UniProtKB/TrEMBL annotation:
It holds the Pfam family BPD_transp_1. Keywords: Cell membrane, Membrane, Transmembrane, Transmembrane helix, Transport. The keyword Cell membrane applies. The keyword Membrane applies. Belongs to the binding-protein-dependent transport system permease family. This is Peptide ABC transporter. It comes from Rhizobium tubonense.
Length: 316
């Protein structure tokens, strides 16, 4: 088991390095000079050259990457050109909004999708199954930002029950903060709930056709007992895969939703950095998003080993 975990962890580190190098290279070759954007069109060549030297833009690409990688391992992600503060602090500050939003949305997605998928599979071909399939397909097809606008019109403008945007900060109390995140979380969760419902239903139906399920029914176990004690636990592997992917999507894919609701999260930071051509912030945020995907896939793989002991023996 230790050998397996060591091999997986080494693969994780190598993947993170390869991804960061790819992103660093892509960011370096993008058109536009951050120094020229910072100084404006009236800057003299001497001033432009001096600022490029200060930013380290006149150094070879691999040397810049090596320094950035060394700094990343020590927690130094560089200095923002626009804000003039360490990027690591910016990411942590914005993560305090994006991470709770993603967790809120994933819990909503699970609360909606798993019971709906299980019930649809248990009543396969019935009216409930057809309605669940239609609803899940509709939630997948409707864009999240459009759902966000509808939620604002209904709950903020018309009913006046929820704030239309902004974030009061966690220091002003848990309830106001959660209230500000409620509508964005719903807008993020609904499309993901549709995907998770379909995956849960399909996984449940596949397991229901297994021999051990027929054996359990032949032994006289009730339908409910077979469903929750035998079918649901064995259908968790594909559901866990989707949950891992959904969480990373909710963190990295919140750019539109955070801009609709004017939330100071990582998605809005990435959008602002793109507009301001703040390469170091863009680069670090994109690497963070990519690293989160890699780490979540690693954790999902480990969860497979915890759920199904047969996989451990196969890997070893």
């Amino acid at each position: 088991m230790i050998v397996l975990l060591s091999r997986r962890f080494a693969g994780l580190i190598l993947t993170l390095i390869a991804v960061s190098l790819l992103i660093f290279t892509v960011m370096a070759v993008l058109p536009g000079d951050p120094a020229a954007i910072t100084l404006g069109t009236s800057a003299t060549p001497e001033t432009l050259a001096a600022l490029r030297h200060t930013m380290g833009l006149d150094q070879p690409l691999m040397l810049r990457y090596g320094r950035w990688l060394l700094g990343a391992f020590t927690g130094d992600l560089g200095q923002s050109y626009t804000y003039g503060v360490p990027v690591g602090g910016l990411i942590l500050e914005r993560l305090a909004v994006t991470l709770p939003l993603a967790v809120f949305a994933i819990f909503l997605s699970i609360a909606i999708a798993v019971p709906l998928g299980v019930a649809a599979a248990a009543r396969r071909g019935g009216v409930f199954d057809i309605l669940a399939t239609i609803l899940s397909q509709m939630s997948i097809a409707v864009p999240g930002f459009w759902v966000a606008l509808l939620l604002i019109i209904l709950f903020s403008t018309t009913l006046g029950l929820m704030p239309a945007g902004g974030f009061p900060g966690w220091g002003n109390g848990l309830l106001p903060a959660l209230k500000a995140l409620a509508l964005p979380a719903i807008a993020l969760a609904l499309p993901q709930a549709g995907v998770l419902t379909r995956v849960t239903r399909t996984a449940m139906i596949d397991v229901m056709h297994e021999d051990f399920v027929r054996t359990a029914r032949a032994k006289g176990l009730s339908r409910r007992s077979v469903l929750w004690n035998h079918v649901v636990p064995n259908a968790l592997v594909p559901v866990l895969t989707i949950l891992g992917l959904q969480f990373t999507f909710l963190v990295a894919g919140a750019v539109l939703i955070e801009n609709v609701f004017n939330l100071p999260g990582l998605g809005r930071l990435a959008y602002q950095a793109l507009n301001q051509r703040d390469i170091i912030v863009m680069q670090d945020v994109v690497v963070f998003f990519a690293g989160l995907v890699v780490v979540m896939n690693f954790l999902v793989d480990l969860s497979y080993l915890a759920i199904d002991p047969r996989l451990r023996g196969r890997e070893l």
